[in-house]
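Weekly sync, protein design subgroup
Attendees: M.S., D.O., the rotation student, P.L. (late)

Item 1: inverse folding check
M.S. brought a backbone from last month's batch and wanted to see whether the design step gives back something sensible before we order anything. D.O. pointed out we never logged the input encoding, so this time it goes straight into the notes. Structure tokens as presented (686 positions):
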């Protein structure tokens, strides 16, 4: 609360006092101070209450606490079309579908004595002139903390701080990015490991940590209603989707392991592997040199061990599993649509699209007046139809250029494979002797494949970091109207890039490598000098499995380092800088300031990581039946790691509404269609 103990803190702004800074830039400091003062006076004119407090630990920091009084909340709730309770919902809820198994499901459910079920209401968009119709028992609790934060953030994003050359400059985001404010965030309601001492505080952060993020809750269902209430529908629906995807993976993982075990136990009965290893069959088949100058002839039986390993993945079980996964992916998408429709109804987001406001960045650029073809009324738009066409063309060209850049990097990897393969081939022994155990497994193809996969992984990660910034710049230039449009546009650009980046090398190995090699005496050459690379005598399937394992495993390790280790280390350093033992004396706003910022696109990267994994699990599953099992283990940990990260390491995000998972739904449907094609082609050709 404010110092009076009555007014609730809905938002906190943080800045560094210029008079305390040890710097010579007096002119720029004065400009920053003037902009901030203009901004804060405009906030007060809009009806918000402000209170400034100096930091306990750092005298230079000033915290501006923001409170929205009742009148302001009502005015903006009407502008934003926020749905609020009319009266309690008296309809009967659906009974459990499990009936006799209720004792078992009770173990998996969240304890209702700890996290009490939310009371359900009939709702309607708020109107001030119909205030008596709404279920207002207490003005202090009618707008919950998440809704209050949303309203205050809406105001902060649209208040002006400067007019220069008839161009209005406004919004807290620009002030934070230009360094005038150091941070802006809503407060957590308590510390994550202790309940609040205030009896009226529900201590929702503590409950979420205890019943959701803590490792001991790993087997329990997620408290989705509380996640939605505390963090908003957007984060709620992400965790609902991730939980549902993980549940569905359980069936795929069981079937995948069964198919893998079938291949493993039958590897010694594999006819062609026996013939390759037989000294009188494979031992007497002499193979042509694999390069032109330095390579010698070699016996087929030196590929004995790799042919045995190939039998594990190239078996009848794999065929069954590929067909099963084609059915599984369709069922998953259809069942998820049904679950998503349930959540839309339960969370009251059915009519969200009509309620969504334009982004402040879009509103600022609206200088052209046009006649709306449907309503025949004048409306302001940021650019003419011609200007829009130019922007779309430029954006599409930029995305296309970056995709070509990835394809160029894949060609570079292929050239690397061809040149390095010659080096490895010169070391190949002509016959197999039992003493050299490494040589038994490390054929020239395997050695080339492993090193090329590692280099490919490093290039993928570097290109990701660069393109991320480019995609945001392109989308900002495109200027989508609403936040949903913005995120969908960015999603499509990022995914298109990531799809080519992650999967291009897999597509090359599965469908192109070893298909155009010519024949002995007349090989096909790349760039006039590199002889086209061949697969192992048993085909490229084992190499595809290696590529998938390295990229999938490497990506999971890299993501966990980024998601867990980096925020934890940063917060640890931040805590070490503060006075030891001072945390209990430090006010809530100061503790939250020292946490990490999630960022506007934080959730976007979580989705992207999971959808790329979904692609690996479905597109090339015929070559690697254990992929769903790895994905299942990763996702069980991912849910709790994400939960731990949000409740303990990050500042509270501004709650946002969301109707569904957005552009990720059509992307998954596209992957599902492609998965049927790729698995059929892998069985047929690879």
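Designed sequence read out in the meeting:
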């Amino acid at each position: 609360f404010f110092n009076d103990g009555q007014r609730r803190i809905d938002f906190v702004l943080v800045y560094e006092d210029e008079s305390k800074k040890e710097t010579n830039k007096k002119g720029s400091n004065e400009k920053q101070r003037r902009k901030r003062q203009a901004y804060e006076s405009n906030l007060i004119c809009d009806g918000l209450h402000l209170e400034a407090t100096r930091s306990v630990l750092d005298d230079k920091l000033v915290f501006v606490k923001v409170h929205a009084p009742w009148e302001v909340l009502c005015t903006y709730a009407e502008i934003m079309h926020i749905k609020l309770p009319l009266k309690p919902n008296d309809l009967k809820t659906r009974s459990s579908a499990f009936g006799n198994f209720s004792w078992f499901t009770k173990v998996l459910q969240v304890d209702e004595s700890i996290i009490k079920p939310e009371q359900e209401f009939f709702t309607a968009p708020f109107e001030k002139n119909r205030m008596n119709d709404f279920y207002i028992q207490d003005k202090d609790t009618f707008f919950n903390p998440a809704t209050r934060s949303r309203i205050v953030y809406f105001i902060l994003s649209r208040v002006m701080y400067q007019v220069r050359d008839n161009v209005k400059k406004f919004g807290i985001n620009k002030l934070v990015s230009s360094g005038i404010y150091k941070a802006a965030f809503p407060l957590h309601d308590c510390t994550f490991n202790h309940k609040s001492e205030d009896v009226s505080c529900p201590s929702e952060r503590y409950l979420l940590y205890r019943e959701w993020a803590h490792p001991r809750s790993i087997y329990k269902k997620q408290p989705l209603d509380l996640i939605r209430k505390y963090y908003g529908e957007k984060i709620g629906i992400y965790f609902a989707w991730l939980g549902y995807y993980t549940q569905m993976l359980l069936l795929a993982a069981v079937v995948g392991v069964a198919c893998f075990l079938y291949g493993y136990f039958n590897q010694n009965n594999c006819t062609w592997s026996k013939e390759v290893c037989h000294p009188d069959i494979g031992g007497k088949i002499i193979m042509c040199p694999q390069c032109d100058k330095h390579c010698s002839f070699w016996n087929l039986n030196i590929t004995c061990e790799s042919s045995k390993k190939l039998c594990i993945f190239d078996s009848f079980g794999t065929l069954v599993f590929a067909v099963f996964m084609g059915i599984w992916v369709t069922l998953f998408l259809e069942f998820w649509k049904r679950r998503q429709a349930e959540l839309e109804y339960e969370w009251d987001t059915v009519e969200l699209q009509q309620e969504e406001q334009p982004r402040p960045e879009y509103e600022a650029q609206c200088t052209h007046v046009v006649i709306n073809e449907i309503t025949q009324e004048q409306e302001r738009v940021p650019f003419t139809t011609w200007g829009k066409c130019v922007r779309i063309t430029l954006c599409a060209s930029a995305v296309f250029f970056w995709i070509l850049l990835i394809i160029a990097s894949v060609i570079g990897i292929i050239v690397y494979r061809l040149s390095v393969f010659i080096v490895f081939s010169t070391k190949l022994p002509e016959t197999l002797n039992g003493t050299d155990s490494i040589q038994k497994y490390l054929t020239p193809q395997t050695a080339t494949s492993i090193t090329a996969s590692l280099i490919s992984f490093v290039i993928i990660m570097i290109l990701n970091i660069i393109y991320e910034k480019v995609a945001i710049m392109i989308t900002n230039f495109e200027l989508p109207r609403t936040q949903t449009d913005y995120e969908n546009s960015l999603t499509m650009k990022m995914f298109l890039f990531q799809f080519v980046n992650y999967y291009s090398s897999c597509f090359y190995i599965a469908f192109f490598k070893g298909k155009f090699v010519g024949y002995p005496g007349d090989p096909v050459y790349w760039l006039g000098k590199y002889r086209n690379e061949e697969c192992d005598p048993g085909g490229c399937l084992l190499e595809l499995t290696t590529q998938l394992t390295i990229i999938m495993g490497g990506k999971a390790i890299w993501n966990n380092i980024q998601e867990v280790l980096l925020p934890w280390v940063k917060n640890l350093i931040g805590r070490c800088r503060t006075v030891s033992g001072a945390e209990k004396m430090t006010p809530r706003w100061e503790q939250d300031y020292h946490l990490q910022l999630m960022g506007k696109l934080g959730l976007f990267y979580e989705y992207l990581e999971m959808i790329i994994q979904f692609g690996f699990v479905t597109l090339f599953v015929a070559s690697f039946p254990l992929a769903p099992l790895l994905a299942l283990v990763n996702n069980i940990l991912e849910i709790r790691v994400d939960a731990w990260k949000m409740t303990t390491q990050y500042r509270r995000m501004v709650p946002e509404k969301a109707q569904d998972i957005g552009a990720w739904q059509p992307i998954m449907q596209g992957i599902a269609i492609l998965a049927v094609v790729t698995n059929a082609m892998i069985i047929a050709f690879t």
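Discussion: Residues 19 and 60 are 8 Å apart (CA to CA). Confidence is low (pLDDT under 50) at residues 430-438.
Action: P.L. to compare against the previous round before Friday.
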